[in-house]
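Translate structure to sequence.
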């Protein structure tokens, strides 16, 4: 019992330290923008870099990167549901699967960062504008990074399972080594 409690504390310490740092960075940067720029104001002004990268005080009532405007309540509820799911599922992930754990920590931090905005000011503050890409914030970037890490983790897991399955077949049927190797090679080449 005590061993399980210590493991649970370590698991949540990892999750909360990463997601907490993301929430802190997200909220601090948003507050700096709201405090120093009027809505729609761009920084720096009259500089060549503005054509490629700029800080702009913008609001978003939809999803990340300005998608689905005016669905703020739906995304607030979704953020709560996703956060609860991550909190429940996280301790069940093996510690060896660090990329999946990191992905969920990034997603939790991003979801909470934007949820705080939705609950306190009624919209999400966005401020990073790169070329003609949608304006976003630290929380949006964190969610996106979490999705990429999640995809990489799932691809790696699938490859490990295929390799383990192939080895098991080879061990149980030594005559099929060439057949299994060819079929495994075809599967990997097809990806």
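Result:
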């Amino acid at each position: 019992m005590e061993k399980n409690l210590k493991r649970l504390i370590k698991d949540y310490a990892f999750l909360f330290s990463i997601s907490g740092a993301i929430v802190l960075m997200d909220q601090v940067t948003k507050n700096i923008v709201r405090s120093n720029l009027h809505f729609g104001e761009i920084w720096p002004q009259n500089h060549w870099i503005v054509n490629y990268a700029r800080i702009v005080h913008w609001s978003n009532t939809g999803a990340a990167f300005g998608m689905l405007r005016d669905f703020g309540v739906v995304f607030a509820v979704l953020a709560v549901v996703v956060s609860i799911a991550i909190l429940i599922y996280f301790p069940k992930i093996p510690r060896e699967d660090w990329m999946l754990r990191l992905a969920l920590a990034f997603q939790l931090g991003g979801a909470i960062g934007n949820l705080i905005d939705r609950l306190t000011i009624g919209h999400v503050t966005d401020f990073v504008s790169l070329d003609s890409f949608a304006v976003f914030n630290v929380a949006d970037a964190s969610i996106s990074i979490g999705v990429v890490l999640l995809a990489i983790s799932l691809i790696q897991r699938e490859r490990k399972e295929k390799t383990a399955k192939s080895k098991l077949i080879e061990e149980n049927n030594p005559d099929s080594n060439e057949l299994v190797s060819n079929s495994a090679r075809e599967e990997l080449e097809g990806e």
